[in-house]
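#lab-general

N.A. 3:47 PM
ok so I finally got the sequence cleaned up, no stray characters, all 158 residues accounted for. can someone with queue access submit it? mine expired

B.Y. 3:52 PM
send it over

N.A. 3:53 PM
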Amino acid sequence: MSPTLKVGIALVVALLIGFVVGFGLGAAGKREFERGQRREKNRAEEAEAALKQQQGQCSQQAKSCKTGKQLISAKEQLLRAALELYANNYGLTSQHLAQARQKLRAASKGLNKRHAAQTLELYERVGQAQTLAMRLDPMARVQIEHILADLQQLPGAR
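B.Y. 4:20 PM
back already:
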């Protein structure tokens, strides 16, 4: 065999070996890259799920705070109404009771069914107290005190 042929065969064999080794190393790197890509994709999906959960919790907390604020505002209006009753100012008493009714109606939308039903019952009782106040009936004071006591039992009204 001639030396040129030996060099040619060695060159072809070296190229084949280089090609096989290069292909093997390239495929290994690709697998590692794809594994890392899948791992990061899973982490991103988990982070998105956690973010959605946190957004839901924040939304629920904001709704709860808004409902609590409405209940406390209703309580404030009831206390103002009671104060106006002590001053025998039945007109302002009626206005404060009307505002308390509005706040109770709004708060009932943010509560669970049981508490919403209690809130709507208080709403009706405030309407009855308002009717008593418009009749200049001193029993309105007792009615308002009972409503305030029942309002204290609702979550967020304390």
